[in-house]
Amino acid sequence: MFQTIDDLESGQRLLVRVDINAPVEDGVVQDNRRFARHAETLRELLDEGHAVALLAHQGRPGRDTFVSLEGHADILADHLEREVGFVADTYGEDALAAIDDLESGELLVLENARMCDDELPEEDPEVKAETEFVRTLAPEFDAYVNDAYSAAHRSHASLVGFPLVMDAYAGRVMETEYTANSAIQEREFDGTVTMALGGTKAEDLIPVIERVDDTVDRFCLGGIVGELFLRAAGRDVGYDVEGTEFFDHQWNDHRETIERILEEYDDRLHLATDLAYEGDDGERAEVDVESLEKETSYLDVGSDTAEAYADLVRESEAVFVKGALGVFEDERFADGTVTVLEAIAETDCFSVVGGGDTSRAIELYGLGEDDFGHVSIAGGAYVRALTGESLVAVEVLEDAN
Prior knowledge:
This protein has 16 helices and 17 strands. The protein has 401 residues and is of the alpha/beta class.
């Protein structure tokens, strides 16, 4: 197990890595759940008298979301209700000067780590530890804290290089996410375990079914992955129509696997019996899968399916959720996702709801995080934890202990 911030002596100069990668609208960064979560870790560190410099990333080069972290500093300041500094540099002279000026209880946000050439290529931690990025920043600090669980599957310099050259610790988000998301591999449940799988990245979710089959008793499918399995079952659905490009490439890449899983896990897979779409009048309309023809985009599981999935949840001792069952951002097509989440919230079961988008539905529709065992802000790292795959940034933290 890794060291946590409980093991830190107070009053140190800390380099802290968080994941506040967020939506960007018209060039403006939007607040999301990740800011609030990481603010809890940062508040605790600042109250302990640490001087904190923050490393984070935003977007990828070439994309509209690849912007400066100056706006992120403002959002963090709102959450922390204290001044947050920003420097438009990551490890150059300006950054080093700003770090040198840091006082106890102060927070400084360094510029987007992905603007550094050393950051992005996926390379072994030993290679990242030798980069100029890591070798320049590390001597400026007493310790490194990784709180970026949602990026822990990435072998980038800011995530895996520093623990090899300095004392390294896990922040609160890293600690709680790792513990909760690893539960499916480490805990034993006496009753039925149900998993709801949805969202748009079927290629990430298809392997989950086989990897957790010793723990999970039944799978409730929706979203893109649900339509692809319906297509394998002979329903006229799961095809791209004009304006979409979700289905066909994933079907072509994974058809054999989908068909094999459908055959092998048939009695444990629960597929939608009805689907929802936008009717001619702009309102939600539903159709039974027995009689549908793929002429439009289906944007949610139907009401009968949602209730059937909710009933399965209520019978379960544990429920894991990855991905939304529909386009919940549009209230017309939130029924599937929200009905299942409400069933989890009202049931005394162990539950983990994972994925940034799905966790956002909890807040959007007035549900309380306290009604769930754990609400994860991770996406790719959550999937890897479910399947028992290693997380390279967690491994280097453990090795640093």
